[in-house]
Amino acid sequence: MPEPPSYPTIRTHIAGLPVAELAGQFGTPVYVYDAATIRRRLADLAAFDCVRYAVKACSNLAILDLLRREGAVVDTVSSQEVRRALAAGYEVQGTPPPIVYTADIFDAASLELVVGQGVHVNCGSPDMIDQYGRLAPGREITLRINPGFGHGHSQKTNTGGDQSKHGIWHEQLGECLEKALKYDLRVTGLHVHIGSGCDMEHLSQICDAMERLARQAGPMIHSVSTGGGVPIPYHDGEAYVDLDAYFSLWDSTRKRLEETFGHPVRLEIEPGRYLVAESGYLIAEIRAVKKQGQNCFYLVDAGFNNLARPILYGAYHPISIVPHDGVTDRPEQDVVVGGPLCESGDIFTQEEGGYVARRRLPEAAVGDWLVIECAGAYCASMGSNYNSRPMAAEVLIDDGQAALIRRRQSFDEIVAGETIPKSS
Q1: Cβ-count burial of 415 within 10 angstroms (0-12 exposed, 13-18 middle, 19+ buried)?
Q2: How far is the CA of 316 from the CAs of 297, 308, 359, in angstroms?
Q3: Phi (first) and psi of residue 56, to 5 degrees
């Protein structure tokens, strides 16, 4: 298990390259990803039979290509994510399925794509079974089950229980098995995911629920998915998940099912955040330092259009300062970090509920850079064009080389889909 992190408040390099050079070459705001970190985190999960990356965490084609080459398969939640996986070189057929489509509904485009391409489907509602079975009878499917309880660092990331829209309600499993039989669909796997963040007590409850549900489904089950939600430490000194204990609980569950069914059961894990969060850094330039009563604000050229987690969940990210003049011995002060958007909520140092918080950071000036760390998951992939601002550029550092993997949007690209009707 890795040692608990200690995040710096002064930073000069990312993955061995000077931040000043990265900012100068690629401009700001810019996301930078360290490929070596992704490889390390993937290796941490080697005990599992299958590591299925949640594409929504960071969906850049270069990240998907890297994970494909390192042996990970993918979980997708939309037709466009399926297309991303295909564009990154994933095949459709294979054991385990290289691409799985997991959702609670089929929109028309998704249903057409998964049926036409033969993409494996993980159904999260009874209606999906009917809709898929009518068009693709005789195929294999898996079922995502809501076990009746959930967990998460925010109510918005809790994906279990009766307030969550996700998954087939556990009491409807029997009904859904009958639906599948009606269309000759073979239910070969079950998936249970209750939300982000976990502890061993909740994990034990999930394992118990999975075992009970799998026994109800019977020996047709050949795979079980632990879901995702494996957290990473965002605060100094926070411990990593004990992956040995995590795997042991699930492995014991799997072995009991194998003994009952008389055949092997594949054990899958579905991480997003764990694989990519720590690899990512958002570099922004400080464009104003201003006093507002008792608060000192560092205002940067990145906003919640680039990184929305603080405004959505009150999420905490480590922050560091990169001195433009190279002087790293600086006194610290309590500051609030905000962006350029015309929106009072455009604050990176806030708590859930929108409460502005201060952060102890080195003194800084206009022209210094500010790095928001642990920004590889649910950051760039949740970006928007709010205030008509462009999506940030993205860069991948691999073996000491920095490559642009997404250029900054131009104005023409922002408005490419818009038209002004001709007057009648």
Answers
A1: exposed
A2: 17, 11, 10
A3: -60, -20
The answer to whether the beta carbons of residues 168 and 125 sit under 8 Å apart is yes
Q: Which two tokens stand for residue 118?
A: 């033969």
SS3 per residue for 145-210 = EECCCCCCCCHHHECCCCCCCCCEEHHHHHHHHHHHHHCCCEEEEEEECCECCCCHHHHHHHHHHH
pLDDT digits (tens, 9 = 90+) for 5-41: 999 999 999 999 999 999 999 999 999 999 999 999 9
Encoded tokens for 225? 């998915």
pTM > 0.85: yes
What CA–CA distance (Å, rounded) separates 23 from 117? 41
Q: In this model, does residue 2 exceed pLDDT 80?
A: no
The single-letter DSSP state of residue 279 is G
Q: DSSP code of 294? A: T
CA distance 21 to 1: 33
Residues 152 and 197: beta-carbon distance below 8 Å: yes
Tokens of 179: 């639906």
Coil, helix or strand for 213?
helix
Selecting among 58, 207, 342, 379, the annotated active-site residue is 342
- Structure token pair of residue 73: 């398969």
Which residues 6+ apart lie within 8 Å of 381 measured at CB? 56, 57, 58, 59, 60
58 is catalytic: no
Q: Report pLDDT digits (tens) over 71-112.
A: 999 999 999 999 999 999 999 999 999 999 999 999 999 999
